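The instructor's notes for this session suggest beginning with a concrete chain rather than abstract definitions. Hand out the sequence below and ask the class to guess, before any prediction is shown, which regions might be ordered.
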Amino acid sequence: MITSQGSLPTSEVCARIRHFGYAASQKIRIYGEEFEVLSDPFPSEGGIAIQVRSNRTSQARVLQLPATVIHRVSQSKLRAA
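After discussion, reveal the predicted structure:
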């Protein structure tokens, strides 16, 4: 599967997103809320998502990653090439 952000395979984008801190057992702050990441990034409808648990409600859910995160990963790959 190829992402719409360029010619990077989705699996490579997911691997690079993990290196940005969006990996299982990490804590992140996104959309104004703190989460514990329960899964590594995976392809989802229309993008890439992770499973998280909200620190505020302790509820687990799937969180779609913002396009800016995916774009930043894609751009860092292009600069490294």
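Then share the key points. The longest strand covers residues 47-54. The CA atoms of residues 7 and 74 lie 9 Å apart.
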